[in-house]
Amino acid sequence: MGRYWKIALLAAGLACIWILGGGCSLKTGDSLLSLPKVPAEYVQLQQQLDVILQGGAAYAVAESGTNRQAVQEVDLDGDGHEEVLAFFRTESGSFQVYGFRREKDEYLPMGMAEGYGTALQAIYYPQLGNGTRALAVCWGFDEGGSYGMTVYGFSKGGMTVLLDMQYADVAFSDLDGDGAEELAFAVRDSVSGSYTARVYRMGKAGYQVSWEAPMCIEVRSVANMQFGQLEEGRIGLYIDSIAIAGGYVTDLICYDGRQAVNRTMDPASGSGGRTWRSSSVFCSDISGDGQIDVPVNHSFPYDANENESRYRLDWMNYDPMGDEIQVSSTYHVPGESWYLAWPESWGDQVRAERISGMHYSRTKFFHLRQEGKTEEVMSIYLFTGSSRESQADLYRQLQPLASTSAGIYRCGVIEGEDPELFLPLEAVKTLFHTIEISWHGEAF
Predict the structure, then answer these.
(1) Which of 218, 225, 219, 233 is nearest to 198 (CA)?
(2) Which of 242, 297, 331, 397 shows its CA 20 to 30 Å from the CA of 311?
(3) What angle do CA 93, 17, 12 make, to 5 degrees?
(4) pTM score
């Protein structure tokens, strides 16, 4: 019997699931409905869960992440057999987690843990090494983005707390390849309001702080965290945050095995303003070289309108001394899920203007001449709505670029004498990219 069938059996009632999904059939004459035999250990487990429910508790499911079932099966001790964890909310509002391990033909209790919060935010099973896993339960505290996490270990004596803390955001990764995942948190000081990045490593006495570094003073709330490899084996922790004055900033914490340094924060002022951009674009490997790049607003040599200053981005790497190295430039429109790798030949002599129609939006790229005149070199259209296909077909002069759940993308190419300004269709297709939506917090 498959894993998901077993979870459904435990959560929704064994008999009903087997009747609906077990391949049963009604027979004529004196024959009765023939039910498959339910394994005795699952009946015994369901009876234990029923006792908890009869005590006034109700099944609880996580609000985010991939582990959202009320009853979950996971191999915690690495022996090849899955333990069962059941999540409940009591009448008093607390959350309870019950663990059961299978021995021969029955499930035996392996402990209960209780936590408090406004919501069961997410459930995760971080690796501890040697094939074993812990249980990380994320609690919601308030609508302002305050969370708590309790990490439990399992032994014959029951559940033990390995780590308990409040945080603003979190990321998991096995940084040194030893089979155990490190836990990285962005932590807000309740008195000063400042943020710190802190990484925990599993030790003999539980999780202990491995390294930490301050974050820039512009941080209002954390939006995204991820690990990435830097040069010479160094580890980079990239933290994208919403800035106090609007827009976004990035903290890049570099760890070389001895100390952690914030490469993008000015050590004297504490500012990370050098990474500021107005649009909601997060760090990614935009150049495809295996290293994560940091987006910043493009610096125009003269005044630019809102469209240009908002959507034009330069992508930076940072060397061990914190110096910037530009690796790419893009025109990013996250609200329409697309971006264009900016051609080097365009430089700042090509500008952009966004225009909204009834059934489409249009981004026009034009050459800005010294005498103030403009000359269009290309346009990108996005058609949306229920009639997107018929609307796009009306513009027969446009060339297809892509079709996604966001809409239909078309390109208007223009022929011109200067090959550095007027791009052929195949070049545009190479430079154009759609953006796949990544739901942050999927696991946390």
Answers:
(1) 225
(2) 397
(3) 0
(4) 0.84
Angle at 202 between CA 197 and CA 206, to 5 degrees: 105
Q: How far is CA 438 from CA 135, 174, 281, 410, 424, in A?
A: 24, 21, 11, 24, 31
Give every CB contact of residue 62 below 8 A, 6+ residues apart in sequence: 68, 87, 120, 121, 122, 123, 138
- Separation of alpha carbons 248 and 435, rounded Å: 18
CB-based contacts of 102, cutoff 8 Å, min separation 6: 41, 81, 82, 83, 84, 108
Tell me how crowded residue 58 is: count the other CB atoms within 10 A of its CB: 11
Angle at 51 between CA 48 and CA 57, to 5 degrees: 115
Q: 192: which DSSP letter? A: T
Give the integer Cα–Cα distance in Å for 438 and 444: 13
Look at residue 27 and give its three-state secondary structure.
coil
Nearest residue to 352 via CA among 402, 318, 304, 414: 304
Q: How far apart are the C-alpha atoms of 179 and 236, rounded to whole Å?
A: 19
Q: Are 182 and 229 in contact (CB under 8 A)?
A: no
Q: DSSP alpha helices (H): ranges in 218-369? A: 306-311
Rounded-to-integer distance, Cα 69 and Cα 50, Å: 17
Residues 6+ apart with CB under 8 A from 130: 78, 179
Amino acid at 340: L
Q: Which of 373, 234, 208, 357 is nearest to 292 (CA)?
A: 234
Q: Encoding tokens for residue 295?
A: 């987006």
Instruction: Spell out the per-residue pLDDT of the chain, length 444, in tens.
Output: 444 434 444 444 433 333 333 333 333 334 444 445 556 778 889 999 999 999 999 999 999 888 999 999 999 999 888 999 999 999 999 999 999 998 888 899 999 999 888 889 999 999 998 889 999 999 887 665 678 999 999 887 788 999 999 998 999 999 888 899 999 999 999 899 999 999 999 988 789 999 999 999 999 999 999 999 888 778 999 999 999 999 999 999 999 888 999 999 999 999 999 999 999 999 999 999 889 999 999 988 776 676 677 899 999 998 877 788 999 999 999 999 999 999 999 999 999 999 988 889 999 999 987 776 889 999 999 999 999 999 999 999 999 999 999 999 999 999 888 989 999 999 999 999 999 865 444 444
Which residues have a Cβ under 8 Å from the Cβ of 366 and sit 6 or more positions away? 350, 351, 352, 353, 374, 375, 376, 377
